[in-house]
Amino acid sequence: MITMNSTSADKPGRLRKKDVEKRLTGFNIPVFGGGLTFKEVETDRPTAKQALAYLEDRRVLYLPFSQEPDQVNCVRSVSEIRNRMADLLADAKNDPLRHCLRSVTAAARQFLTDVGASRYDAYMSRYPDFQFWQFLGAFRARVGQEVAILVYIFDLDVWEELESILPPLAEE
Q1: Alpha carbons 96 and 150: distance in angstroms, whole number
Q2: DSSP label at 166?
Q3: Per-residue three-class SS string for 100-135
Q4: What is the pLDDT of residues 23-36, one digit of tens each?
Q5: 3-state SS, residue 2
């Protein structure tokens, strides 16, 4: 597990909060031509932890493409992520968490649309393999941005496997 509160830079496999801060360029929500920077909202921390714990257990987010069992399981897993984030959205009390959960839900919905899946039909491949994996890569990138925001705002720990989908470190 990667801890965000580690103070030792020489511990392998640890991601520190300042490392995540380098990955984020900021938060700006346009409000009447201005912006709003937000920080942790304590009342949503338990729900944010639930969302992160759920995402950490979804191998479709970080397993190398060559190790994915098949496209049908990927589609099923993304659909389950969408449903779980939608369920957690009902428990979100404030905008920062709501925004993250909606973004993950929208990313899942876009992936399912891109591959032609629906909740009633089994996945029927319309695309060559490389296009399916491109769609999955785009989904992972969008979810990675939201995971980085959750980790930063709510000062959460993230498993090393899930770290692989976080935005890259900014150059100093």
Answers
A1: 9
A2: S
A3: HHHHHHHHHHHHHHHHCCCCCCCCCCCCCHHHHHHH
A4: 455 555 555 554 54
A5: strand
